[in-house]
Design goal:
CATH class: Mainly Alpha
Strand content: 5-15%
Number of domains: 1
CATH topology: Arc Repressor Mutant, subunit A
Number of helices: 6
Length: 141
């Protein structure tokens, strides 16, 4: 199982945005500098986030991005979905009778990995941006 940089960077950038967006719109350049993420890559990520209505852009000299909802309403699963990130622990499809190894039956440990995937996805569906912002501010004290 691997979470790609796109998913990780989307979460990092949105946590950064959530920390600052109640003041003014946040520019991608500022997020890029603070988080060490390529500006071009952030533009691709935010294009997807905007299409899924997680963020909205504000034009003008003081423009940038703001969250489209409150941070507590945005779950990590919403973010992963927006950037086409899938957390999978098995390669086969859930409804398929065939296993990942191409054999007609699933492997002996298939249910273990499937259960792990469910736990991970449940964890991400319960965690919000607000949780991460609070967790980050608690560490600074």
């Amino acid at each position: 199982m691997k979470l790609t940089s796109r998913g990780r960077y989307a979460v990092m950038a949105l946590v950064d945005l959530a920390r600052f967006d109640n003041i003014n719109p946040v520019s991608l350049r500022d997020i890029s500098l603070r988080q060490g993420i390529s500006l071009d890559y952030l533009e691709q990520i935010f294009s997807k986030l905007r299409k899924k209505e997680i963020v909205q852009s504000v034009r003008g000299t003081q423009g940038g991005y703001v969250l489209n909802k409150k941070a507590k309403e945005i779950k990590l699963t919403n973010i992963f979905d927006a950037v086409d990130e899938k957390v999978k622990t098995v390669q086969c499809k859930k409804d398929s009778k065939k296993g990942c190894n191409g054999k007609p039956v699933k492997c002996l440990t298939h249910n273990l990995w499937d259960e792990l995937e469910n736990h991970i996805n449940n964890f991400f569906s319960e965690k919000s941006l607000e949780d991460l912002v609070k967790d980050n501010s608690d560490r600074r004290v």
